[in-house]
Every structure is written in structure tokens, then in C-alpha cells.
Amino acid sequence: MVATSPAFVRNKDPILGALESVWPASGRVLEVGSGPGQHVALFAQRFGGLTFFPTERDRTLFVAISHHVAEAGVHNVRPPAFLDLDDDKSWPDGDEGFDAVLAINVLHMVGERSVARFFELAGRVLKPGGAASAYECFTQGGQHTAESNAKFDAWLRETSPGRVHAFETVCRFAEENGLPFEGTQALPANNQLVTFRRI
Asked: Which of 72, 106, 107, 181 is the most buried (most CB within 10 A)?
């Protein structure tokens, strides 16, 4: 059975709508942590002028990514590549640059150091004016914005290196890498799409 993401059906349309005001009509998009690839396949259908570069730390998901891309019948997605935020030898060289970098439900799965590395990667590979976006939930002023997020945070801390990260910390990491905060869009289930723009 080909791997799928349970959250995909719930969040695909809100994320699509939010990205329409963030991404350019043409260019190159690096997705960090593509999971089974359903999102990148859908994005490729909607944003035909963009070329997508899916990546994953879990190589076993490459088959699923390729399957969902083929099923979508799109030709603007490159083969999946290995990328580990904590191993910069796996990062793209950035010579051609990217117009956007995206992470969906990735940052809460990793520790604070890896979140910092995400923004270091984005700052390295984005072209001037390029957007770094993350779909996540965050704390604000040291407080969870919903009880469900507090429960999710407790579960993450017990089962993974991750947590619900502080919005202020995320903004600081982005700023340190030349990515000032551009805006946030509230999405269902107490999540947000936050975007930072390369100077």
C-alpha cells in the first residue's frame, strides 16, 4: 500500500489558497519534508508555471512521492531527493537558487536546533525576494493559542524531539538569516501559514 498523509485531505485546500498570494507565477520551489508527496503533487497541478523539488529525510517515502506525482499526471516535479536539516552536506547547493521554500508540518517534528537550520537553509538557497513558508502551529507570548495545541505539544514532547515552537523564536531564526517576517495567514485547526521574505 502506498503511503498517504492523514492530514492531507483536511488541510490541502486552505494551504493551496494561502500559497496563491505567496508564490510567483513561475520559478523553482524547494519542499522540505515532502512526506508521501500528496501536497507536492497537488501543488504541481495548481501551479503549472512552477517547478517543484520534493525532499525527504526518510528515503522509504521516495516511492510514495513518485507514485502520487505520477498519479497526478504532472511533469513539473523533479525526482525526490534526500535532505536532512541537520546535515548540510545533503542540502542543495543553491547555485541556481529557489523562488520559494516550503515546509508543511515539519518544524514541530524537530528540535529547536533543526528549526534554526531550516531558516539557515532557506537563507542560503533562496533568491532575493524569495519566500520561506511554514505551515505550523506556534505558541504566542509563551502561551498556546488553543487547548488542542497544548495537548499536541505534550504528545510531541513525549514521542519525538519536537514541540510546538515559539513564534518569537522562529521569527528570530528567520531574521538572523536575512528573512524578515512578511505575514501570517490563519488556517483551520489552529494552524498558520507563516511567510518570511528573502532580502
From this structure: 107
* Residue 165 CB burial class (10 angstroms; 0-12, 13-18, ≥19): buried
- 139-172 pLDDT, tens digit per residue, is 999 999 999 999 999 999 999 999 999 999 999 9
- Tell whether 2 is covered by a domain: no
The CA–CA distances, whole Å, from 34 to 1, 75, 144 equal 18, 17, 26
Count of structural domains within the chain: 1
CATH of the domain at 68: 3.40.50.150
Q: 5-56 pLDDT, tens per residue? A: 988 999 999 999 999 999 999 999 999 999 999 999 999 999 999 999 999 9
User: What Cα–Cα distance (Å) separates residue 96 from each residue in 3, 30, 80, 88?
Assistant: 31, 12, 18, 17
Q: Is 3 inside any structural domain?
A: no
Residue 115's H or E segment, with its range, is: helix 112-125
Written as nine digits, the cell of 165 is: 515552537
pTM assigned to the model: 0.97
Residue 119, H or E segment? helix 112-125
Domain limits at 65?
Answer: 8-197
Q: For the chain, give me the number of helices (H) and strands (E)? A: 6, 9
30 in any annotated domain: yes
Nearest CA to 104 out of 135, 79, 63 is that of 135
Q: Are 190 and 137 in contact (CB under 8 A)?
A: yes
